[in-house]
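Researcher: We plan to redesign the surface later, but first we want a full-length starting point. Tokens attached.
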């Protein structure tokens, strides 16, 4: 059977029951017996029974020599383009000013004047043009958007959203929410939700999210969240996992009243920024990821925002073909306007000229000269582009180790629980 060959997108590892084999491009994963695996790896396809061979072919672990994988790959990009969420998230950053001094803030050194009304009107014209062909959501971003100096501009944005039937998401630390309550109540129908960060119970939260005078912020934020609940203004909670709170985060998620009564998204603070509190990698990060994943399965209001794990989960639990992850964070649908009217497609790369939007080119991992040849990229989507550019050494693929470790840990965990059928 020389007409067949093993695809380049296969990875495997040994477990007690045999070998786990997964195809990162086609999204299939199987558990093979030791005997079947050895015949497969040695290319002894004529010795494999027909049923097993049909599965290996159907799941693309073995492909026909004549199959053009590059052509097939391009067809998957087209399918991904067709299926992905097309909503444009247009971020508005009034300024980098903030009333907090968070330990992990990546905007400490960023400056610039406040956004002018003229620039804000330019954004409105841009949005009106986008509405001709796209669904649009506005996102108020910062710095901190809910500052008194931004009150009039926020009112202009909400009025514009009302006139054009657009939803507005507000990413805020929540500290001055009470000051803006009447304004938000007036335009409540157009507020998608407020996203407010709590990094744990009071002791943990106040370590990382302090005011500039070093006072804690937890008590007032919780009071404001409860106020928003009474006003029926939808609020979601963001939880950042970092070195300071990693030991306490699970207990917080399971027992804090706010976490029980609100939708919660869980994020990891990236460790490449050389920040004061995050100068080294979180200990046992993948183990924490798996533990948080299991908690999210049992608590439906909790969501772990870690795209590679979601992709692995789909591969394990979906019987059908799973499209590759071409875009780690849906950045192709992000447009951020900063205070100087610059446009970016990455919310964390403000003032980084490499991320300025110059055309409508997609930002899939296939445009990266290193990631496009990596067999794991269909799972991680190339990872966070800004993190990649900040820390990359030419031809360094050390990130592969983290993804492989995550895959193996995740699957072995399932096998131990007898949750995965052979």
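Model: Full-length starting sequence:
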């Amino acid at each position: 059977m020389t007409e067949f060959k093993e695809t380049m997108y296969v990875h495997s590892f040994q477990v007690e029951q045999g070998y786990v084999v997964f195809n990162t491009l086609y999204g299939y994963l199987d558990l093979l017996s030791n005997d079947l695996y050895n015949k497969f790896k040695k290319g002894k396809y004529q010795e494999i029974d027909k049923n097993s061979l049909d599965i290996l072919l159907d799941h693309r672990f073995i492909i026909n020599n004549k199959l053009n994988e590059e052509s097939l790959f391009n067809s998957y990009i087209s399918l991904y383009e067709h299926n992905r969420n097309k909503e444009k998230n247009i971020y508005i950053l009034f300024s980098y000013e903030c009333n907090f001094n968070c330990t992990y803030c990546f905007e400490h050194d960023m400056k610039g004047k406040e956004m002018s009304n003229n620039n804000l009107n330019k954004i409105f014209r841009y949005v009106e043009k986008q509405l001709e062909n796209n669904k649009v959501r506005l996102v108020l971003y910062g710095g901190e958007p809910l500052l008194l100096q931004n009150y009039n501009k926020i009112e202009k944005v909400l009025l514009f959203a009302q006139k054009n039937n657009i939803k507005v998401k507000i990413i805020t630390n929540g500290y001055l929410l009470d000051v803006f309550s009447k304004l938000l109540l007036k335009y409540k129908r157009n507020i998608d939700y407020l996203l407010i960060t709590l990094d744990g119970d009071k002791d943990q939260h106040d370590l990382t999210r302090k005011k500039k005078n070093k006072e804690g912020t937890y008590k007032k934020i919780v009071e404001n969240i409860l106020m928003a609940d009474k006003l029926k203004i939808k609020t979601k909670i963001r939880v950042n996992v970092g070195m300071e709170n990693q030991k306490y985060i699970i207990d917080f998620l399971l027992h804090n009243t706010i976490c029980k009564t609100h939708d919660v998204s869980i994020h990891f603070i990236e460790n490449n920024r050389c920040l004061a509190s995050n100068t080294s990698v979180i200990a046992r990060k993948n183990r924490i990821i798996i533990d948080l994943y299991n908690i999210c399965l049992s608590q439906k209001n909790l969501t772990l925002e870690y795209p590679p794990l979601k992709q692995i989960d789909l591969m394990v639990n979906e019987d059908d073909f799973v499209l590759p992850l071409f875009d780690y964070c849906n950045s192709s649908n992000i447009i951020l306007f900063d205070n100087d009217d610059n446009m970016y497609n990455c919310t964390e790369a403000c003032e980084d000229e490499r991320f300025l939007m110059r055309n409508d080119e997609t930002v899939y991992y296939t445009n990266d000269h290193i990631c496009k040849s990596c067999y794991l990229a269909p799972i991680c989507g190339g990872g966070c582009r800004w993190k990649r550019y900040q820390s990359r050494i030419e031809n360094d693929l050390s990130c592969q180790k983290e993804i492989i470790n995550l895959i193996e840990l995740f699957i072995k965990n399932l096998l131990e629980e007898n949750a995965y059928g052979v």
